[in-house]
Write a structure and sequence with these properties.
By secondary structure, the protein is mainly alpha-helical. It has helices spanning 2-20, 23-30, 34-37, 44-70, 75-92, 94-104, 110-137, 143-164, 169-193. The N and C termini lie far apart (56 Å).
């Protein structure tokens, strides 16, 4: 039942935002009485955090899968695959993406803590995983260059993520193409230093 409540909460957050996703709407979505939710979650904030954690975990697992699937490609192709995987994941789950944005912008103070923890964990994973791939391709690369390149990639990927909700059709396709060009430029700069 907890998973059904999380899925219903995500649907409701996507439809109505955090404030409009009432416990009554979530309960109706699942087919239970609103009071029954409190058997599983103490309050709306607890359900909110569980739904947010689910969205973050889904994203992280997808990024892990993409990296594993592309680990034998060139490092530039890995970065590009990660970018396209992010696009595919979030455009393929518009409801989850809209819910994520609704939750990130909600007034619940605990979200900042969970988001910061997740981002630290995700960025550490990127530094280790992508850093290893970069060092394998560029043995003379410095830790500072690895750090800078991955941070630049994160900025590019964050821009593309927010673009999913701002641009449509050809405009969004252009944004992704520009992001790919920026990634290519990062690696051209590394090549030119060697």
């Amino acid at each position: 039942m907890k998973q059904k409540l999380i899925e219903a909460a995500i649907r409701q957050y996507a439809l109505y935002g955090y404030d409009g996703a009432t416990m009554r709407r979530i309960a109706d979505d699942v087919g239970i009485k609103p009071a029954s939710i409190y058997s599983f979650y103490n309050n709306k904030e607890a359900l909110f955090i569980a739904a947010f954690q689910q969205l973050l975990q889904n994203h992280f697992q997808e990024m892990q899968r993409i990296l594993l699937e592309n680990k034998d490609r060139s490092v530039e192709e890995i970065f590009s695959a990660m970018l396209h995987g992010l696009v595919s994941h979030h455009t393929g789950d518009k409801q989850g993406t809209i819910a994520y944005i609704s939750l990130v912008t909600s007034p619940v103070p605990e979200i900042k803590k969970y988001l910061q923890q997740h981002l630290r964990h995700h960025n550490d994973w990127l530094m280790n995983s992508l850093g290893d791939a970069m060092k394998a391709s560029y043995p003379a690369i410095t830790d500072k260059e690895v750090d800078k390149t991955i941070k630049q990639y994160v900025l590019i990927a964050n821009g593309v993520f927010w673009g999913i909700n701002l641009y449509d059709g050809g405009d969004f396709t252009e944004q992704v193409e520009l992001a790919d060009e920026m990634i290519h430029t990062l690696f051209l700069e590394l090549e030119n230093k060697r």
